[in-house]
Amino acid sequence: MRPAAPALERSAAEPPAATVPVVAASQSPDAVMAAAPAPDAGRAAPLDPSLAADPALQRAHAVLARVPLVDGHNDLPWTIREYKEAPGDVAAYDLRAATKGHTDLPRLRAGRVGAQFWSVYVPGDRPAGDMVRLQLEQIDVARRMIAQYPDDLALALTADEVEAAFKSGRVASLLGAEGGHTLANSLATLRAYHALGVRYLTLTHNVHTDWADCAVLPPRHDGLTAFGEEVVREMNRLGMLVDLSHVSPATMDDALRVSEAPVIFSHSSARAIADTARNVPDDILRRIPSNGGVVMVTFLPAYVSQAAGDAREARRKARAEAAKLADPAARAARLAEIDAQPQPRATLAQVADHVEHVRRVAGVDHVGLGGDFDGMSAVPVGLEDVSKYPHLLAELARRGWTDEELEKLAGRNLLRVLRAAEATAQRLQAARPPSLATCTPASEDKREP
Ligand SMILES: [Zn+2]
Question: What domains does the chain contain, in order, with CATH numbers?
Answer without folding.
Answer: 34-305+345-439 (3.20.20.140)
